[in-house]
UniProtKB/TrEMBL annotation:
Keywords: Cell membrane, Membrane, Transmembrane, Transmembrane helix, Transport. The chain crosses the membrane at residues 20-43, 63-82, 103-124. This is TRAP transporter small permease subunit. Pfam families: DctQ. It comes from the Archaea. It is found in: Cell membrane. GO terms for cellular component: plasma membrane. Residues 1-128 form the Tripartite ATP-independent periplasmic transporters DctQ component domain.
Length: 149
């Protein structure tokens, strides 16, 4: 992606007689691909963009409840995304990118479905872990802000 991005920038200032229309398309497609592949990893390691810094100001009980609500909403969203990726995969059939004829658009939808599915698996395991932790600490008082992350 870095190389294709540099070629695209270089081509803006120095005109190369060879058409490099595919460079921008490869850069955008690679960016989307890397984002989708990295989604489960980022969520697992709390590196995603979220509202966790705001939640850390609440007590442990409120924090855990809000995280569970977030996870439930996220699972619902991810299920919708997997289903739409699955439907789109079969709808686009043999459509390719305009300048890269060998790259089928359905491949992107397949990666999306797998990435969102992997995120669902992690979110469900995270939610179950939090529920077990909540069940084991019921009735035990803890100081606010002790062990959020």
């Amino acid at each position: 992606m870095l190389i294709t991005g540099l070629i695209q920038i270089f081509n803006r200032f120095i005109d190369i007689s060879v058409g490099l229309y595919w460079v921008g398309e490869i850069t955008r497609t690679t960016l989307v691909f890397l984002t989708l592949v990295a989604l489960p990893y980022l969520f697992k390691h709390n590196l995603d963009i979220s509202f966790l810094p705001i939640l850390e100001r609440f007590s442990n009980e409120t924090y855990n409840v809000l995280i569970l609500v977030r996870n439930i909403l996220l699972i619902g969203f991810l299920v919708i995304m997997v289903q739409s990726s699955y439907l789109s995969y079969y709808q686009v059939n043999s459509i390719t990118l305009p300048t890269i004829r060998w790259f089928y658009i359905r491949w992107i939808y397949a990666v999306m479905a797998v990435s969102f599915g992997a995120t669902i698996v992690y979110v469900i395991s995270d939610t179950l872990g939090k529920l077990i932790a909540l069940a084991s600490t019921d009735g035990v008082e803890t100081d606010a802000g002790d062990d959020h992350v």
